[in-house]
Design goal:
Layout: E1 2-11, E2 14-23, E3 28-32, H1 39-47, E4 54-59, E5 62-63, E6 74-77, H2 89-99, H3 104-117, H4 133-145, E7 151-155, H5 163-180, E8 183-188, H6 191-197, E9 200-205, E10 208-213, H7 215-220, H8 225-230, E11 236-238, E12 241-243, E13 246-249, E14 252-255, E15 265-268, E16 274-276, E17 286-298, E18 301-308, E19 311-317, H9 319-324, E20 332-337, E21 342-344
Parallel strand pairs: 3-8, 3-9, 6-7, 7-8
Antiparallel strand pairs: 1-2, 1-4, 4-5, 9-10, 11-15, 12-13, 13-14, 15-21, 16-20, 17-18, 17-20, 18-19
Length: 345
C-alpha cells in the first residue's frame, strides 16, 4: 500500500501543497488533470527522483521518503518510452531485471513471458527505431514489468498514440493489472482514458488534489465546480440565491430537491433534459419555454443548445428525436427536467 501524507513541493511557478493519497495493493489508480498541474512531479516524488519539501511517502507502513529510487522497487514508464536505442527489444526488456540481479535463465523466462503477454514476441530482435509508437510503448511496459515492480508508475503512456492503438493498449493495461495483480498509478489528462481504466480517479487542478472517487461517482457527483468543468460536465450553473428548494439561476426559478443554503452551483446532466413542442405533462417541477440556438454532434447523440431567457442549457437527444422535433435555429420548444435530476455544489 502506498501512502502520501501532506506532500508539498515548490519551485518556480509551481506550488504543490498538502497532497495526501492512499493506493491499495492491486489498485489501478488514475491521476487526472490538465498539463502543468504537478502530476509528473508527484509521481517522480513517489519514485524517489524528486524530494518533497515536506510530507511523507510510505510503502506498506514504512517511511521511504528518503530512500533512493533504486531501493524502492518501483518502475516508471514515460510517454516518450525512453528505450535504449542501441539495444534490441529483448535486451531492453532484460535490462531492468539484470540490474536487479536476476540470473540469465530467469531473465530469459521473464522476457519471453512478457513479450507473449504484450504481443511483441516477433519484435524481440528489432531495435526501437524500427518500431511503431504502439510497439515501442509495449516494449517499454515489458521492460518495466520485467523488474516485477511493487508499483508501476505510468506518465501519460498513451498520449502520443493514435486512437486505435490507445484503445488496444488500454485493454493490455487492464489485463496486466488483472493478471499480474500489479498496483498501477496512471497519469493522464484524458477523462475518458481515466474512466475506462481506473478503479479510482484523483483529479488534480492548480497543484491540488481536488477529489478522489470511483469513476461513476466522480462523473455523477463532483464535489467541486472546477472539477465538474474540467470533466466536461455540461449545464454547470451559478446560483444567485436559494429559498427552500428553489434556486435563482440566470433569472429563472429552478426547483432542486437537494438544494440548501450552502448551494452555490447546480448542474444537470444533458440527457436528463426532455424536449417537446408543447408543455410536457409530467410530475417534473421544472419546465421552461426555450429557443434553439444551435446544435452539434456528441458521439451518437446531438447536443442541442437552448436559451431560456438568460439561462443557457444543453440537451442531449437522439437523431430520431432531432428529426421529430424538427430542430432548427430559433425553433421554440419546451424543456422539462425533474428537481431530483439536479446536482448541487
Amino acid at each position: 500500500m502506498l501512502e502520501l501524507k501532506s506532500i508539498s513541493k515548490r519551485f518556480g511557478a509551481m506550488d504543490m501543497s498538502d497532497v495526501s493519497l492512499t493506493l491499495q495493493a492491486g489498485e489501478y489508480f488514475a491521476l487526472l488533470g490538465p498539463t502543468g498541474v504537478g502530476k509528473t512531479v508527484l509521481i517522480e516524488i513517489i519514485a524517489g527522483l524528486i524530494r518533497p519539501d515536506s510530507g511523507r511517502v510510505s510503502w506498506d507502513g514504512a517511511d521511504i521518503t528518503s530512500l533512493p529510487p533504486e531501493q524502492r522497487g518501483f518502475a516508471v514508464v514515460y510517454q516518450d518510452y525512453a528505450l535504449f536505442p542501441h539495444l534490441s527489444v529483448a535486451r531492453n526488456i532484460a535490462y531492468g531485471a539484470r540490474a536487479r540481479g536476476c540470473g540469465s535463465t530467469e531473465i530469459s523466462a521473464r522476457t519471453a513471458r512478457l513479450a507473449d503477454m504484450l504481443g511483441i514476441t516477433e519484435l524481440l530482435a528489432r531495435r526501437p527505431d524500427t518500431l511503431s509508437g504502439g510497439e515501442q510503448q509495449r516494449a517499454a511496459l515489458a521492460r518495466a514489468l520485467a523488474t516485477e515492480p511493487k508499483l508501476l508508475l505510468l506518465d501519460e503512456p498513451l498520449s502520443a498514440l493514435d486512437t486505435n492503438t490507445r484503445v488496444r493498449l488500454r485493454r493490455e493495461l487492464k489485463r496486466i493489472n488483472s493478471e499480474l495483480g500489479a498496483t498501477i498509478l496512471h497519469v493522464t489528462h484524458e477523462p475518458e482514458e481515466a474512466m475506462a481504466l481506473a478503479d479510482r480517479i484523483g483529479v488534480m487542478l492548480d497543484y491540488r488534489l481536488r477529489q478522489v472517487a470511483a469513476p461513476e461517482e466522480l462523473f455523477r457527483r463532483p464535489t467541486d465546480v472546477s472539477v465538474a468543468r474540467f470533466l466536461g460536465i455540461q449545464n454547470v450553473l451559478s446560483v444567485s440565491s436559494v429559498r427552500g428548494d428553489i434556486c435563482e439561476v440566470a433569472g429563472q426559478r429552478i426547483h432542486a430537491s437537494s438544494a440548501d443554503e450552502s448551494t452555490r452551483h447546480i448542474w444537470i446532466m444533458p440527457e436528463e433534459l426532455l424536449l417537446s413542442h408543447q408543455p410536457f405533462a409530467s410530475s417534473a417541477l421544472n419546465q421552461f419555454k426555450c429557443t434553439v440556438i444551435n446544435w452539434d454532434h456528441s458521439d451518437a447523440l446531438l447536443a442541442v443548445q437552448l436559451a431560456c431567457g438568460d439561462l443557457r442549457l444543453i440537451a442531449l437527444i437522439t437523431y430520431t428525436s432531432f428529426q421529430q422535433l424538427n430542430i432548427e435555429p430559433k425553433r421554440q420548444l419546451y424543456v422539462t427536467f425533474k428537481s431530483s435530476a439536479i446536482h448541487c455544489l
